[in-house]
Amino acid sequence: MKPFKPPSPMATNGLILLCVAVQGALLIGGRGFDAAVIARYGLVPARISAVLAGVEPAGSLGIGITHMFLHSGLLHLGLNMLFLAWVGRYVEWVTGKAGLLALFVAGGLIGGAAQWFADPASMAPVIGASGAIAGVIGAYAVRFPTARITLLVPIIIIPLIFRVPAVVFAAVWFGIQLLQGAWEKLSPGMGGGIAWWAHIGGFVAGLALLPVFLLFAPAQPPPRPEWRRGPWDLPD
Fold first, then answer.
1. DSSP secondary structure letters along 98-109
2. How far apart (Å, rounded) are the C-alpha atoms in residues 114 and 108?
3. DSSP reduced 3-state for 20
4. pTM value?
5. Are 107 and 142 in contact (CB under 8 A)?
6. Residue 199 and residue 28: Cα distance in Å, rounded?
7. What region, left, alpha or beta, does residue 64 occupy, with left being phi > 0 and alpha being psi -120 to 50 degrees?
C-alpha cells in the first residue's frame, strides 16, 4: 500500500511564491528601492505608537500585512520559506487553504503586535514572515504533536542525527525564543535585529487559533501512521 499523500498545498506554495516574487522585485530595484520599500511597508513600532497617540494618521501604517512579505535578504527569505514549506503543507491539509492563509495572517498580525508591545518606541522596521510562520508551527505542534522530526545537530565536527516528537521540537524552539526575547529586554541593543517577540506572539496565536479554524475546516480522512511521522523524517 502506498503511503497517503495530502492534497497539493496550493495556499502554502502561493505564499512562498509571493514572498519570493517580492524579494525578487526588491533585488531588481536595488538598494535604495529596497530601503524605501522596507521603511514604508515594514512594521515600525514607533509609528504604531504615534498613530495610537493621534500624532500620525492611521493611513501612515499602510495596509497592515505588508511586512510579512518583506525580507532583509536571500538568507532570511530562504530560512523562512524552508520552514513554511515544511509545516505549511500539513497544516493546510487539515485546515484547508483558507484556514492556512488565515493562520498565516493572524500569526503575522499578532506577532507584530507582540513586537510593538515589547518595544513600542523602536524605529527599526520589523519585516519578514517569521511571526506568521511561527503561527503555522504552533498549529502544527497542536495538530501533530507525535509526528517524528529528524534533526541534525553538529557537535564540533561530528553531526548528530536524532528524532524527536514535533511537540518537543516546538517546545524547545519556543523556549529559545523566550530566552532570546528576555535577553533582548534585559540587554537593549544585543538582540541582533531579530524580532523575537514577533516569533513568540505568532506561535501563541497558532496554538490558540488552530482549534477555532478546525471548526470551519473541510472534512478530511484521518491521517495514516506512515504519513504522520513528519515531513523531514527518515524512512524506517
1. HHHHHHHHHHHH
2. 10
3. helix
4. 0.85
5. no
6. 29
7. left
